[in-house]
Design goal:
Elements (H helix, E strand, L loop, with lengths): L14 H21 L87 E2 L18 H19 L4 H6 L3 E9 L5 E7 L3 H12 L8 E2 L2 E2 L2 E9 L3
Parallel strand pairs: 1-6
Antiparallel strand pairs: 2-3, 2-6, 4-5
GO cellular component, one term: plasma membrane protein complex
GO molecular function: energy transducer activity
GO biological process, one term: protein transport
Length: about 240
């Protein structure tokens, strides 16, 4: 049975071909539109048309500088070598050895001079070899007994001469006064240093120390030296 429609007038006959042709034309036009470039016909700044006045052109000045010649190296003349004649006699110096051997004589002890070194620094009483001797402690046998006697006699001297000043007592002042003094090389008392809570207490402590008698000075290696001694005195109201 033959179809009733005429294939020559079918609308969908070449639709696919027309679609691809149309798409191709659209893509071509889009590409041309994106790649289209325009240029200005005239340049606003035409560099090639600029001209420079010849009067403004100056020739570069060429300076010729003459550098000084480098210094000539100093060449020292070689030392002159003199050849000594062999006819001259040369006396050689003989050095006698001073090594000690069994024939060397030993000097006697009495002939050796010992230099006495003067000790100028103060030595604390606990470090000195022979402590100062308080009057009345001369008969003590050992050094330790002399030190104990020294401290006992100093305490006895403080108790004997202690006097509480009336003005200080009225003000109710009390406290401890730290005392340090030096027993000189001749046995006298000097360089008294005090530190206490009040000047009046320090003055009373200084008065007590000033009444200390002269002593036999301390000795270090058999030489009289300065010896420092420190003690506290406590002022307390009953």
């Amino acid at each position: 049975m033959d179809p009733k429609k005429n294939p020559q007038i079918e609308l969908k006959r070449n639709s696919l071909l027309y679609f691809f042709v149309g798409m191709t034309l659209v893509l071509l036009m889009a590409y041309l539109a994106l790649e289209w470039k325009t240029y200005h016909s005239d340049d606003v700044w035409d560099v090639s048309s600029f001209t420079v006045d010849e009067d403004l052109m100056e020739d570069a000045t060429i300076l010729k500088l003459k550098l000084p010649d480098p210094p000539k190296p100093k060449i020292q003349a070689p030392p002159k070598i003199e050849i000594a004649e062999n006819d001259e006699d040369i006396t050689e110096t003989f050095i006698e050895p001073n090594d000690v051997d069994q024939d060397t004589k030993v000097a006697d002890i009495e002939d050796v001079a010992v230099a006495e070194e003067e000790i100028t620094e103060e030595i604390p009483i606990v470090l000195v070899e022979n402590a100062p001797v308080f009057p009345g402690c001369e008969n003590e046998e050992t050094e330790e007994d002399k030190r104990d006697c020294f401290q006992a006699m100093v305490q006895k001297h403080i108790r004997k001469n202690f006097r509480y000043p009336d003005p200080v007592k009225e003000m109710g002042l009390q406290g401890r006064v730290s005392i340090m003094f030096t027993i000189e090389k001749d046995g006298s008392i000097d360089n008294v240093r005090l530190r206490g809570p009040h000047k009046s207490l320090e003055e009373e402590a200084a008065r007590i120390i000033s009444k200390l008698p002269n002593m036999k000075p301390g000795q270090q290696r058999g030489v009289p030296v300065k010896v420092s001694y420190s003690l506290p005195i406590t002022f307390k109201l009953n």
